[in-house]
Amino acid sequence: MIGRVFAEMWQGLRRNSSMVISVVLVTFVSLTFVGAGILMQQQISSMKAFWYDRAQVSVDLCSSVSTAPNCAGGQASDTQRDAVEAALQGAVLTPYVSEYEFEDQDQAYENFQQQFAGDPIVSFVEPEYLSESFLITLTDPDQADIIIEQLSNYDGVEAVTDQRQYLESIFELLNVASLSAIGVAVVMLVAAALLIATTIRLSAISRRREIGIMRLVGASNRYIQAPFILEGVVAALIGAVLALAATVAIAHFFVQGYLGRQLPFVSLIGVPEALLAIPVLLVVSVLLAWVSARIAINKYLKV
């Protein structure tokens, strides 16, 4: 009996080869978007774990061109700078400060030149235009508000900035891209479900004589439905396997290969993380095909 079911399934796949190929391709594209969305979410989580713990609080001292309320006296004096450093070493802030470093104007200018190398703006900036700053690494990055509250009102302090706020905009952009990929995937999955249902209906119509004979000999509905459902599942699984290959290729060649060369200091995901998408894509493909095919063939048998 099982052999007969599989024989009917292969016969149906051969008869509707063009429609089966369409199902495979649509499933492949939709599940590739699902895989890409999973990869992006993993990358966002990896980057947050990597960068949030390394994000610093920057205490920018007044420069000669600062206009902040605390900079009425012009560039921060040695006394004002020493006061900020004393606060960092004091009993109130010491529990929150893991370490800190001081960046003078010459160092800030050198970093500025490296960051904006080749940009015409470099020729208009002098070292005295840039702020000296304390770069503070916290024991707990979530307690940055304490440092900001304590040091913002010091004379000679232009601004106290939690660098994580710059990361938030990047992560929000990545989240939007990830959700967009998932949104496209949902639309494509709906299209795949409709295409699977149509394929199964056409397959059933082309074999209505065989179905009629099976009914006459007392075959159960489950036995009649099984080959059609398996057709959809097999086509969807082929698409899922192709999507898995594409997901692994994206992780290996694009993320680790291209992005790895362009962003050497960023923690990037790789093939092991891509492999975690295997059960998700396989389960989605099987459920999609089984539900679509079951609904389609049930409607046909009730006609």
Automatic annotation (TrEMBL):
GO terms for cellular component: plasma membrane. The chain crosses the membrane at residues 20-40, 176-202, 223-254, 274-297. It comes from Pseudoclavibacter terrae. Residues 184-299 form the ABC3 transporter permease C-terminal domain. Pfam families: FtsX, FtsX_ECD. It is found in: Cell membrane. Gene3D superfamilies: 3.30.70.3040. Residues 56-160 form the FtsX extracellular domain. Keywords: Cell cycle, Cell division, Cell membrane, Membrane, Transmembrane, Transmembrane helix. Coiled coil: none annotated. Forms a membrane-associated complex with FtsE. Belongs to the ABC-4 integral membrane protein family. FtsX subfamily. This is Cell division protein FtsX. One of its GO terms (biological process) is cell division. Its main location: membrane. InterPro entries: ABC3_permease_C (IPR003838), FtsX (IPR004513), FtsX_actino (IPR047929), FtsX_ECD (IPR040690). It is a multi-pass membrane protein. The keyword Amino-acid biosynthesis does not apply. The keyword Lyase does not apply. Part of the ABC transporter FtsEX involved in cellular division.
